[in-house]
């Protein structure tokens, strides 16, 4: 084969690859986390699905507003829903407890610890700093999974609140085992294996306007033929959420209102339309 022939072949193959990539738009999962932590949070997540770009929703099963979340999800039967497995109750003014009898996962008051890993603002109040038991993690995860599947039969995946499903290798193996046993096809640790890339804001995102600009930059960076996931926490700037905070994250209400504003923004929708981005849920990953 001559050099000229080889160059021609490479150009043809390159053209075919480019055409194929252009015919397959970027796919993006926009996931709203923490449904159940507050009434306003539930309202925001519902709004971001009905009026915005959110396609996947994570539910905190032990949370105080879980029963309302179940009723709200009945309004959007096509929404992709996942179990946000949790071992923590991080806020200072509102707490939740395990669903099961698991002494090694509770603090002195019977609540989940506020943190998964050591945090200088909460000394000795993380799961990893205490004598947690794998058997009790399994018991609690099973309790959350079974209640979620009872109340929300269309569960498609697992994820870990504050990274609890990656506590250590044994917990990672446990999540994989539970996914297989309960026939849950998707879970966060598997996403990389199937080519789903995590994306975040591109640039500063402290204010609502910064979030908007950074989110649109992220959208512009998505490549044809690839699948991505973007995770954040919608909320509303109401007195209820203004009372929810922990040390190091005090501006929860304003910050989460910014997420809702971005995900329902006409400007964001226009970028998605212009770029041909396909919004999907976990339940679309194998399609």
What count of domains describes the coordinates? Answer: 1
What's the β-strand tally? 8
Poorly predicted segments: 5-21
The SSE string, one letter per element, is HEHEHEHEHEHEHEHHHE
CA radius of gyration: 21 Å
Number of helices: 10
| Overall morphology | globular
Strand content: 5-15%
Described by strand count, sense and barrel closure, the largest sheet is: 8 strands, parallel
Helix content range of the residues, please? 40-55%
Assembly status: single chain
Structural class: alpha/beta
For the record, the CATH architecture stands as: Alpha-Beta Barrel
Span of the ends, CA to CA: 40 Å
Keyphrases for this structure?
10 helices; 287 residues; alpha/beta; single chain; TIM Barrel
């Amino acid at each position: 084969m001559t050099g000229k022939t080889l160059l021609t072949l490479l150009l043809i193959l390159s053209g075919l690859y480019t055409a194929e990539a252009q015919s397959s738009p970027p796919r993006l999962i926009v996931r709203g986390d923490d449904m159940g932590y507050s009434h306003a949070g539930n309202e925001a997540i519902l709004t971001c699905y009905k009026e915005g770009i959110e396609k996947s929703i994570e539910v905190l099963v032990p949370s105080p507003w879980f029963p309302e979340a179940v009723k709200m999800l009945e309004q959007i039967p096509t929404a992709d829903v996942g179990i946000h497995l949790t071992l923590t109750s991080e806020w200072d003014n509102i707490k939740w407890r395990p669903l099961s009898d698991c002494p090694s996962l509770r603090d002195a008051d019977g609540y989940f610890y506020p943190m998964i890993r050591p945090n200088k603002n909460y000394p000795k109040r993380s799961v990893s700093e205490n004598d947690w038991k794998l058997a009790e993690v399994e018991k609690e995860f099973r309790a959350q999974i079974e209640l979620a599947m009872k109340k929300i039969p269309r569960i498609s995946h697992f994820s870990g609140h504050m990274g609890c499903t990656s506590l250590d290798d044994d917990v990672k193996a446990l999540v994989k085992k539970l996914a297989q046993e309960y026939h849950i096809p998707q879970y966060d640790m598997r996403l990389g294996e199937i080519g789903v890339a995590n994306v975040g804001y591109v640039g500063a995102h402290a204010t609502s306007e910064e979030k908007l600009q950074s989110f649109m930059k992220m959208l512009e960076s998505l490549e044809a033929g690839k699948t991505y996931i973007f995770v954040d926490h919608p909320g509303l700037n109401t007195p209820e959420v203004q009372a929810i905070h922990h040390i190091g994250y005090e501006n929860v209400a304003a910050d989460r209102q910014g997420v809702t504003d971005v995900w329902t923004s006409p400007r964001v929708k226009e970028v998605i339309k212009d770029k041909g981005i396909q919004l999907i849920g976990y339940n679309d990953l194998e399609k």
